Amino acid sequence: MPANILNLPQYIVTALKxxxxxxxxxxxxSQQPLNCPHCHSGDIRGFGRREQLIKDLPVHGKRVxxxxxxxxxxxxxxxxxxxxxxxxVDEKRxxxxxxxNWIGRQSISRTFSSLADEVGxxxxxxxxxxxxxxxxxxxxxxxxxPQWMGIDEIHLIKPRCVVTNIENNTIxxxxxxxNKKTVIAYLSQLKGINQVNYxxxxxxxxxKDAMEIVIPHAKIVIDKFHVVRxxxxxxxxxxxxxxxxxTAKQRRGLMNDRFVLLKRERDLNDKEAFxxxxxxxxxxxxxxxxxxxxxFYQIYDAQSPDQAKTLFREWYHxxxxxxxxxxxxxxxxxxxxxxxxxxxxEHPVTNAYTESLNNLIRVMNRLGRGYSFEALRAKILxxxxxxxxGGQRPKFQRQQSMRMPELSRxxxxxxxxxxxxxxxxxRRDCSDSDLTDSPVSTWYNKNYxxxxxxxxxxxxxxxx
Length: 464
Fold this sequence. Notes:
Layout: E1 11-18, E2 22-29, E3 44-59, E4 62-75, E5 81-83, H1 97-109, H2 112-119, H3 123-140, E6 148-156, E7 158-165, E8 170-174, H4 180-188, E9 198-201, H5 205-214, E10 219-222, H6 224-242, H7 248-256, H8 258-262, H9 270-282, H10 284-299, H11 305-317, H12 328-342, H13 357-367, H14 373-381, E11 387-392, H15 407-412, H16 432-436, H17 439-442, E12 444-451, H18 452-460
Parallel strand pairs: 2-4, 6-9, 9-10
Antiparallel strand pairs: 1-2, 3-4, 4-5, 6-7, 7-8, 8-12, 11-12
Helix pairs in contact: 1-3, 2-3, 4-5, 6-10, 6-12, 9-10, 10-11, 11-12, 13-18
């Protein structure tokens, strides 16, 4: 008899064939049924056989098919027929449970087509297993509610709302869209949502409205990144308006040097400072726009909301008529959102690090072309090894009564598997509540979500 290559004691391997790509294993169920599943009578007899092909985990780089000679029985009491059950086989698919679990885990980091080819099944089956696996994870994986919440957007096929934990630099969830109704529905179903104290967001009214409805006590802070980016956009508009007056050679130079213009003056090296000085001298309007951009950045050096408001008004009155139209969007945004923008100077929370993910996620989109939003979301939220975990262990608490048992009782006590974690000499006098409330049993891990830096590294390395 061939060796049990399956390493499944529930089956007896009767034959084994091997070709270039596959193992073909013939097997019988080792334990025959003893009773009729309908009437539970033990008077049953054989009533034929049929062969079933069951897929199993790949071995030695080859696909594995198990041909089970399934026995059919008839009950002499109720005359009903039945087939013997196939142990460790998935109820929904003709494959072993361990293969289903393996495909589920692998589908997070690999393409569906590569898994289908490796196992020898169709891609649709991999997608189905993936959906079931993710549904189970959704029920069991719980991310901690952040005290400092970030609401931003990333591009997964189209703009989506991303919820982050600012204190831990993690992604907590990704919503199907960024509509007010969607955000309200998500926030309303979170347990412990009242522990959110601060929310950093961009200037998108549906986010603000949703927060004020569900968690009105939370302080809304407009993300600094989104505000100062509008100053850069204004400078870009001035730069582009000058292109019509330039020669082709000058336009190419201005295009290549745009990153010098967008860079903070304090961060320029000698070469970049020389290039900037040349552009500002040759094109005074561009130089003026650059100085105004730098002056706006200085508003964020303010020590209080009132000081920030004063600096903004001084900055606004210093705008020259030539460049004022370029900064009109920024001026309008500040006027509409001033209370929330100025909250930053009391609570400097920012969600800017999620912006770095957008380019990486675009790469992920291209690699997973054809994936649904649900698949891309799951690959991000449940990437193995990307979660940031934290442990919490309560302080040791003295028990009210710690009576030592008598030696005679200890000697006559028989160990019970129920209390294996408790010292033997204490088992008899420990109640269930004592064990449940012990420091060991109440220790648990906190899952803060997907660590953004780890996720970015995994995407860059092609691990997602």
